[in-house]
Amino acid sequence: MKKLFFFALLLLAGLPISAQTIQSNNYSTTGYIKSDGTLQDKSYSTIGYIKSDGTIQNKSYSTIGYIKSDGTIQDKSYSTVGYVKSDGTVQDRSYSTLGYIKDDGTVQNKSYSTLGYAKGVKKTWAAVLFFFFDL
């Protein structure tokens, strides 16, 4: 039993950090979000980071924004640029709806046209990529 447990531990230790695929509306891969918040383009080059405290950084580690625990999205000067509601509604700073992040990861604009897919990605992270920051 100890050998089996040890073997299973070795297998788990060798697994890479999982990444969620970001796709366009026609399902082509546009990038990846690793579980540690590293943002990569489709060629696996790092384009930015979302830190556990909500700080959003570009590939040079310069802070470009923040995700607050209540879904507020701010720029680097702490000015609110938008909101992500718990139901997935994405709004700009004036509370006008920009789009929606569905529970299945579908990202839609305000007219309900599909922009892309971010299955398994936090709604705030998907909103940052699709609506607020050009990484």
In words, what does this structure look like?
- The protein is of the alpha+beta class and 135 residues long.
- Helices cover 16% and strands 41% of the residues.
- The protein is built from two helices and twelve strands.
- The chain has a twelve-stranded antiparallel β-barrel with strand order 1-2-3-4-5-6-7-8-9-10-11-12.
- β3 and β4 form a beta hairpin.
- It starts with a helix and ends with a helix.
- The N terminus is likely disordered.
Would you kindly provide a brief summary of this structure?
The protein contains 2 helices and 12 strands. The chain has 135 residues and is of the alpha+beta class.
Envelope shape: globular
How is the biggest beta sheet arranged?
Answer: 12 strands, antiparallel, barrel
N- and C-termini, Cα separation: 48 Å
Quick check: average pLDDT? 89
Biggest sheet strand order reads 1-2-3-4-5-6-7-8-9-10-11-12
Strand proportion, as a percent range, falls in: 35-45%
Evaluate the radius of gyration: 17 Å
Count of beta strands: 12
Helical residue percent band: 10-25%
Structural class estimated from helices and strands? alpha+beta
